[in-house]
Amino acid sequence: MTVGERRRALEWAGELLRDLAFQTERPKQIWGGPVPPELKMLAHRILRHYREPWQLDAAVESDDPVCLWISKEPPR
Question: pTM of the prediction?
Answer without folding.
Answer: 0.69
